[in-house]
Amino acid sequence: MQKLSRRNFVKVGAVGTAVLTSGSKALFAEEKPKTDVWVFKGPDNRALMEKCMETIFANGGFGANAKTVALKVNAGWERTPEQGANTHPELVDVFLEKAIASGVKVVMPELPCKKAELAFPASGLQQVADKHRVKMIDLSTAKNTFEEVEIPEGKTLKKEKVARDFLKADAIVNMPVAKHHSGGKLTICMKNWMGAVEGRKMWHVNGLHQCIADFSSFMKPTWAIVDATRCMTSKGPQGPSEDMIYPQQVILSKDQVAADTVAAMLFHSDPLAAVNYLAIARDMNIGETDIKRMNIHRITV
Amino acid sequence: MSKVKASRTAVRLLLLAAALFFAIGGPLPVWLKRLIPALSPLTTVAESIAQRAGYAGFFWALPPLTLLVLAFWKGRFFCQHLCPLGTLYSLPQKFSLKKKLLPIRLNALIFWLVMFSSVFGLPALLFLDPLSTFNRIGIGLTWGPGLLVPAFLLLSFFQPQVWCTHLCPLGYGFDLVHRKTGKQVFNRDRRQFLAGLGIGGAAALILPKVGKKSANPSVLPPGATVKFAKTCTRCYACVSACPSKIIRIKSGGGLTELSMPELRFDHGICEEFCNRCSQVCPTGAIRTLTQSQKHSTQIGIARIEKEKCLAWADNEYCMVCDEYCSYGAIETEWHGEIACPVINQKLCRGCGGCENACPAVRAGKALLIHPLNPQTTIEGKS
Ligand code: SF4
Ligand code: SF4
User: What is the pTM of this model?
Assistant: First the structure.
């Protein structure tokens, strides 16, 4: 049932956007409230994440009646937390602690690139999930996990099989690490959904960037949280990379496209020129890509 | 049944169960998979001769040597009390029809054939070693050498323990070293000794030339020596040890390559932080590698077939091969907007990561791993 409500939500969103864009451009710029993006910066990962969680709960949490939250991290590679191929376990630790304390149940489904029994423990995320008794679901072996959905706004990707755990959940949180990516240039929130679908291989065959944007028009998280504590700027997504940067940031927004745009600026001065799927997201109006139309709260922790 | 006999049977059955347990392995430490096939003095001696090397090392040479010393005093003690294959073949004894299917003993011939062919560098027929044979059970039923156990189990219904009494080269070896019967046994089978010398020598020279070399040479497990095909006894310890299940049994190829283990990447890859196969090989066909030695071993090199590649031929944003390469061995050549993959031969380990992940479907995978034989190492970078 949840799936239906999400689909309806997307449809309503699409209609709304259509109405807005058909109106005058000036009116649009004035009337649409700026998109909130929070950038937390500081040396201590746990403190960053605590501030981030405070902000989440001060801005509606996971929704009034949310009982279940599906959390999409990166845990796909057999790499250590320092190497920056997976979401940092310290951040996830705090997320789980605070989310569970607020009364929701969290699951962590992931379609790993390496075998789950290698990648999940190496990433440190299995241990963190175990600590909080959260189920880390290996989508590569779990049976009957995927359900086909339609992507109404999709240009190339019109259907995809999505992990049921996300469709069933009351709220979705997209929590990737920001890193270099050989095919996608960067992988942050939007591209992270490739770890939630069955047909990801075909995205490469059919036009990667369009598919990424298409799917993000359907899959919109309640919150997007970007781990930009340490980032690979080459040899991504797996690494190890000799070109690490250490922004020590966590970026938060309800709009994953905005979060991606802000995070991408850590890598490229003009993200839309560098990252194709962001430019497509702008053209398709999936989310905010214009810094000027964002309310960026920079918070030092 | 006397009490002594009953307790003996119980011990034998227990040992059989334990051996099965080791062969199948599961969560046990991986080196236990080596224990059963490595216990054979026949394998250890023949392989050391064939490879002109004490490949086993002190630790792994000790158990088979102990068995030899035991045989010096007690003859076939191992056969009667310890051998898991012997116990298995003795199970149908009660129901056996006691027919003489095989009237003559050939164990001396097989034994000497193994020994003399080993002298010429190819331990022919060593796959018949009972402990290597038993160990194959660990991977379940397979064609070729995997059928030996069911076949002889069936034969035992007609002629009790026909394998042990008439064919087993290891049992014959125990007879030979027994201080009481040894000389007698040798003299009795002098003709088979001479036949073994002749056939063994000829086999070692001729076998490598028989059969077509296969069109796709095999990628071998990390640590495999150049003599891998000849010295592997097909115990399949590596097959069962590989967590990725990529060590498969070869079909086709020349006679010396018959049913040998090879790597295939269609369902998995050689994992970056794994050296399990190299820990279990009882024959030295795969040398033991430490974690870091394995990490720097090149077992093959990936080659790109550009006309099949999504980036090179179809102008797609792909680079999935680069994504999945754990060693940074795929470099980017820019064609306008499109990143195209190029293999860095110095860094590629031949792990199959790229081949396995390549999403190209139009004309099949755009990457294939070509074996390196001999395998090489990457110095200074890992
Ligand atoms: S080292 Fe590679 S081939 Fe050997 S067991 Fe491990 S994954 Fe399998
Ligand atoms: S086989 Fe492919 S994935 Fe493995 S090291 Fe070579 S280029 Fe990398």
Answer: 0.89
